[in-house]
Structures are given as structure tokens and as C-alpha cells.
Design the sequence.
């Protein structure tokens, strides 16, 4: 039994509970749209299109999903409305497959290179620091040697918050306090991780977007100095988004991808929102895989994203 199974991260009931608000809203609407209908006709598809758009899947992604279903209807000649939910699940999973590896990530998998450097980005308030703390705990629990870097030196208390998480996860933290040079902190973190033979270093960064130019320059500098210490660093750049903000999260994602090469997404606070459709839309529109989802407050409630488990839970009858 692997690490994920041991701590229950992939248990079906955990994800289903986490997306309960999103599922109840979208499935109630779909149920009403197909009530009394014997076939999947243009009217049903129009209703489905509206439901997906208003569920924060997004216009572009919704159109792609509807096109896929229309192709199925044309190919199979006849589909009844009771089959629609199954087809919807299949086509969304197929759509997400284009943006994710076949096998979900695993915390106890070996890294190609050590130390493995991960830069975490995202605006303030999305749960960035909490996500880093939970990742540190999960990697530590899986047997990894973990280190944190407090390079968000702009926001008051950001360093203190990350220090609390480092204590909870029982992992070392590299810090220089508020207003220190973020790139210097990142450099020290990677250098220390290399010297102490850490498996992974998670580096926090500032989340302000009010001045995109300065943020772009700062993030570019952080990436550059880390790459001087460890070849290819950062090996991952994770963007943390608050799922409860729906399309606002999409706008934030676009803003960051304008000047950062995002390799993976983290969608937090899914358990507190009915806007779970954003998980599907943001991955498809940005062509970036969702790597983790947050489905609760507990430290183990940061889930490795499994597209089939997520979609089947979201669109469960």
C-alpha cells in the first residue's frame, strides 16, 4: 500500500464531501434540464451549456465540452437523456487528460534531481502559505527531507506564518525577516538545501499583483538566482488559486502566466464553494495541469488531484 492510500488522501468519500456544494448545485440544474426529456436534443445541449458556464467552467471550456457531446450524439445517432451524465463525465475526463499525466503525482515518488526546488506563487489570501505548510507535512510524512524558504518578505506576518507551519510540519525554514531581499532568501534556501542534501525545498514568494512589472522582475530574479545554485531550478512553479473566487481565479491565473512559466495548479477551498467548475476551466484554458486540490481544513486535506475521481464526484448522480 502506497503513502497516499495509507493516509487516505484518495479516499472517494473525502473528495465527494469536498465537492458536495458544487455537485449539488450543478446536478440539480442538470436534473431539471433533462426532466421528461427522452433524447439529447439541441434544447438539452443549450441548457447544459448555460449550466456549465454559470457553474464557472468558463465559456471556452464549456464550448469544447458541448462540441464533444454533439460529436457523440452525431456518431451514436441516438442518445437518451439518462446517458447524458455518463457522457458528460467521460468527455470532461478526456478533456482534462490533455493537460495532465496519466498517473497522479505521489508524495513518495523519487525526484529526478535533488534537491527538487518548488517555487510557490499566488496572490495574497488564496491559501498559499497554508498550502506550503501542508505540502511540507505531506512530503515529510512520506519520508522526504524537506526545507522551506520564506521569500515572501513583502507582506507583514508572511514569514511568521510560514515559520508556524515549519514548526507544525517539523521541517527547517530559511528566513531573513520582513523587507529582506526575496532573491537572497531564495538563494540561501537552495544553497542550504543543497548543502544539507534535502530532497525538496518549497520557496514562498510575494503575492502582490498591483504592480505587475515589479512582481515580474522579482520572480524572474528569484528564478535566476536559484538556477545558479542548482541546475534547472526551480523544477516546479505551482500557482495557488482560491476556487471559491470562480472566474476571478481565472483572471489571476492569466495574470501570472503572462510572466511566469506555471507548471502546475493548486485549487484551494473547494469544500467551501459551489464554484468547483473552475478546476476544469482553468486547467483547460491555461493548458496547465491541476496538481493538488484543497477539500478541507485538516493538514491532510490537501489532495493530490485525480481527474477521474474529481469528475466522477462532481457529476455523480
Sequence:
Amino acid at each position: 500500500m502506497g503513502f497516499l492510500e495509507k493516509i487516505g488522501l484518495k479516499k472517494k468519500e473525502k473528495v465527494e464531501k469536498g465537492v458536495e456544494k458544487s455537485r449539488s448545485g450543478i446536478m440539480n440544474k442538470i436534473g431539471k434540464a433533462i426532466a421528461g426529456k427522452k433524447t439529447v436534443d439541441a434544447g438539452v445541449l443549450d441548457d447544459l451549456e448555460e449550466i456549465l458556464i454559470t457553474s464557472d467552467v468558463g465559456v471556452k471550456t464549456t464550448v469544447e465540452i458541448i462540441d464533444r457531446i454533439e460529436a457523440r450524439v452525431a456518431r451514436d445517432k441516438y442518445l437518451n437523456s439518462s446517458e447524458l451524465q455518463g457522457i458528460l463525465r467521460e468527455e470532461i475526463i478526456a478533456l482534462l487528460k490533455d493537460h495532465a499525466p496519466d498517473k497522479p503525482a505521489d508524495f513518495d515518488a523519487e525526484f529526478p534531481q535533488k534537491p527538487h526546488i518548488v517555487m510557490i506563487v499566488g496572490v495574497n489570501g488564496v491559501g498559499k502559505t497554508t498550502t506550503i505548510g501542508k505540502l511540507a507535512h505531506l512530503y515529510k510524512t512520506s519520508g522526504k527531507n524537506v526545507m522551506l524558504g520564506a521569500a515572501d518578505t513583502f507582506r507583514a506576518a508572511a514569514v511568521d506564518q510560514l515559520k508556524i507551519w515549519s514548526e507544525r510540519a517539523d521541517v527547517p525554514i530559511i528566513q531573513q525577516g520582513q523587507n529582506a531581499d526575496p532573491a537572497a532568501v531564495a538563494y540561501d534556501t537552495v544553497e542550504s538545501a543543497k548543502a544539507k542534501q534535502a530532497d525538496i525545498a518549497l520557496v514562498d514568494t510575494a503575492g502582490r499583483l498591483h504592480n505587475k512589472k515589479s512582481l515580474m522582475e522579482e520572480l524572474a530574479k528569484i528564478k535566476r538566482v536559484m538556477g545558479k545554485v542548482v541546475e534547472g531550478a526551480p523544477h516546479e512553479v505551482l500557482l495557488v488559486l482560491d476556487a471559491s473566487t470562480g472566474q476571478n481565479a481565472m483572471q489571476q491565473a492569466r495574470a501570472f502566466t503572462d510572466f511566469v512559466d506555471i507548471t502546475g495548479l493548486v485549487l484551494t477551498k473547494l469544500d467551501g464553494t459551489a464554484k468547483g467548475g473552475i478546476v476544469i476551466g482553468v486547467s483547460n484554458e491555461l493548458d496547465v495541469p491541476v496538481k493538488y486540490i484543497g477539500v478541507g481544513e485538516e493538514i491532510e486535506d490537501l489532495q493530490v488531484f485525480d481527474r477521474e475521481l474529481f469528475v466522477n464526484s462532481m457529476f455523480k448522480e
Observations:
- The chain is about 50% helix and 10% strand.
